[in-house]
Amino acid sequence: MNRFTFKSFVAFKGSWRRCIRQTQGSVSVFLIMVLAFVFLFSAVLIDYVRIAAANTQGERLARAGIRSVMSSYDISLRENYGLFAYGDSSGDMLLAKILTDNLQTSGRGDEFNILPLALESSSIKWERPLGEYTVFRRQINEEMKYKAPIDFTLELAGKFKTVSTAMGEASRTIDLFGKLQPLYDKREDALDLMLERRSQAADSGKVMLELIISPPGSIDIPFQYLGGVSSAADIVGQYSDFVNKTYADMYLEEDEYPIYSYQISNYLWQSSQVTSLLKDTILAFQETHTRLMEESKNALQEAVGLNESMKSVIEQSRNNDTRPAYESAAAWDIPGSPTNEAGNSTIPKLSEQGESLLLSATVLSDLDTSLSEQDRSYQTLQREVSGLPAVLLNASGLNADVSWLTTSVLEASRAANSYIQEYGGRGSVISTVKAAIETHRTSDKERKETEKQSKAKLRDAMDIINKIRDLGQQTSDSLERYNTLHQYYDENISLNARLNQDVPYEARSSSTPYEAGSAAMGDMDGIYEAMGSVLNGARDRLFQTEYAALYFQPFDISGLVSLAEQGEGNSLQQLSDQMDPRNQELEYILYGFNNPAGNVAAAYSEIFAMRLAMRTMEGFIEKATLGNPLAVTAAALLYGINKALEDMVLLCKEGSLPFSKYVPAQLTYRDYLRLFMLLHGGGEVQLSRMLALIRLNTGINPAEKFTYASSEIRVGMRLWFLPGVIKALDYTGVLPGDVQKNTYYRELQADFAY
After folding, report:
1. Contact between residue 715 and residue 61 where contact means Cβ atoms under 8 Å apart
2. 3-class DSSP state of 744
3. Is the predicted pLDDT of residue 184 greater than 60, yes or no?
4. Neighbouring C-beta atoms of residue 714, cutoff 10 Å
5. pLDDT tens, residue by residue, 185-215
6. CA 70, CA 488: separation in Å to the nearest integer?
7. CA dihedral 607, 613, 617, 623 (to 10 degrees)
8. What is each CA distance from 181 to 135, 190, 602, 637, in whole angstroms?
9. In which band, very low, low, confident or very high, does the pLDDT at 345 lie, cut at 50, 70 and 90?
10. Angle, nearest 10°, between helix axes 669-680 and 539-551?
11. Which has more pLDDT, 509 or 475?
């Protein structure tokens, strides 16, 4: 049993050793499998991390590269105009160099680069040229967003706030009386025409009266011997002698011959001629009188209609009395502006006195009644004279009643003479009516003399403007540059795909002081409205205005001193140098005339109009004592024109003017152009003009200068482990790049805009 047991033990031990020998190494295989999986995972993870790092590094590189490229902006545009646009170097080459330099290794032998990125390709796509309106306007806004509001508010708006109420009242007054004045003068002309036609109608009977009796006004017809017959009174006065001599020739002795035949026949013939002529004259008088009286009635009706028109104008003015632009100015929050507005307490409220110019219904009714009374007097006259020719026919016979003839002639002459004395040119009734009309014309004579002086002064101002405009006709060199400038302008319009609908500003020529004053006040209304919109948030117009005033050159107004002062300009050569577009850039941007002197003339004209508006406001204060509102308005306009002419001389000499008599702060020539840019500017045509000037001055075409770049680069990185596994991951869309063979590639894009 022990043996068996020993043998069994030996057998068991051998089996166990064989078993041990057979399973030996299985752990190694297991460990190898585990390690292989760990290695696979680690290798994939390492490359994935490298890929993620390469993506991040590539994006940073792309952004840094495009920023570096765009830092090469055009220096002249930046320094001269505050604009950013890419310069002249090749963007693709610059980008490639920047990327290559950033990816280049140090060259050390012991260097270990975990991210060996390599540049495969790079390119830049350029967009948004500076010549596009949206791009240019955005850069203007960026340049001026801090400076423009502060400069505008403190330098301009604060000054206008101080006279807003006074200017508002002056604007209302000019608007009202500028409309009333022509209606008033037409009404008065119609009344004068009515009186003139009434007196002419009466005076048309003077010829008839001369044929009835001469001299007019005789109260008796004396006896006359046969002789010349020139009137009805002569016929009657010679009738008794005619009868006596006729009988003397009829009753002759046998040896006697008629001795009065010639005198008798001459009397009969002349009497017939006078009677026929009197008949025709009475008919002509009737026709003329009827026509003239009809014209008189029409003139009165016209005067009534004009009076109603004046009443409507006054009513409309009362209903539209508000001036929002001026009223809102009082609420402008401007640091340092005075609380009390200059001139506001003393300016007369003439707009409330318009009704004093109206004719009452009673006055108009009295005029119509007087006209009707004249018609009745005429009817009485007609009854007296219409039958007189028939009565005079009896004087050709021998049995006429002399007293009847005498009475008929005297009654007709008295009626005609009385009518003419009452309604003729110096007639008592006409004089009374005229005196009644003149009672409301207290200052018309002086006013019309003032208006005459104003027209003369206004012509002087227009002559100066025309002479300035004529200066450009002999400056051929400047005209060539203007043609080049206009070509650049047209090309920019085409670039922006706009139809060229630009209409240059045209200086308005006013023939009357009232038209000039109304136009000037209209411009002032527009300036206040523009300022109000700007202060309420309309930024683009303000930024564009202030940008143009900051970076573009205005005309040197001192060159017009002698022209403004004496009406004679400097030598052509002295002024021709200033007619170059480079010396009047701001005026060209504002008005857009394609000629050397048109823009300067327009600026001079607008400044004169603005000074006229300001000085007319002062004139209302200075001339308030005249009483009659039309007289005050006319005197204020004359004051305004005279002072505006003086202001233009001072502006040419000094380059600046006091804002007004009540606000001594100065406004420069450039400041006035800033105001007009605010009034007329802010549009796309002004942008094109600015871009055309930039091209003319720098030789740089804004259409070829870009402000936006989009870069595309392709970088590669060699994979260290298992590119196939990484490529398999690429199929799942996990990786942003792609794997080709053993290299990972990534395409990157970076954009940059000024």
Report:
1. yes
2. strand
3. yes
4. 16
5. 999 999 999 999 999 999 999 999 999 998 8
6. 26
7. 100
8. 51, 14, 28, 13
9. very low
10. 150
11. 475
Give yes or no for residue 562 having a pLDDT over 90: no
DSSP label at 238?
A: T
pLDDT at res. 329: 73
3-state class (DSSP) for residue 580: coil
Evaluate if residue 690 carries a pLDDT over 90. yes
Neighbours of 663 (CB within 10 A): 20
Radius of gyration of the chain (CA): 52
Concatenating the DSSP letter of every residue in 55-102 gives HHHHHHHHHHHHHHHHTSB-HHHHHHH----B-SS-HHHHHHHHHHHH
Q: Are 226 and 260 in contact (CB under 8 A)?
A: yes
Q: Which tokens sit at 334?
A: 């401007």
- Going by C-beta distance under 8 Å and a sequence separation of 6 or more, which residues neighbour residue 157? 332, 334, 531, 534, 535
- Where is 753: in which H helix or E strand? strand 743-753
pLDDT at 502: 52
Token pair 């003339």 is at which residue? Answer: 601
Asked if omega into 215 is within 30° of 0 (cis), the reply is yes
Total Cβ atoms within 10 A of residue 127: 13
Beta-sheet pairing, 743-753 with 656-658 = unpaired
Residue (of 689, 522, 671, 687) closest to 133 by Cα position:
687
- Average pLDDT for 325-333: 71
Can you tell me whether residue 478 is helix, strand or coil?
Answer: helix
CB atoms within 10 A of CB 535: 20
Identity of the residue numbered 211? L
The amino acid occupying position 519 is A
**End-to-end CA gap in the chain:** 106
Query: 383 with 653: CB under 8 angstroms?
Result: no
The rounded distance, in Å, linking the Cα atoms of 358 and 349 is 17
CA 126 to CA 88: how far, in whole Å?
Answer: 13
Contact yes or no for 548/586 (Cβ under 8 A): yes
**pTM for this model (two decimals):** 0.79
Of 391, 421, 405, nearest in space to 233 by CA? 405
Three-state SS string over 669-705 comes to HHHHHHHHHHHHCCCHHHHHHHHHHHHHHHCCCHHHC
pLDDT higher than 90, residue 255: no
Q: What is the mean pLDDT of the chain?
A: 84
Which residues, including other chains, have CB under 8 Å from residue 3's CB and lie 6 or more apart? Answer: none
Residue 500 confidence (pLDDT): 47
User: In this predicted structure, what is the pLDDT of residue 2?
Assistant: 47
Cα–Cα distance, 633 to 177 (Å, whole number): 7
User: Which amino acid makes up residue 181?
Assistant: Q
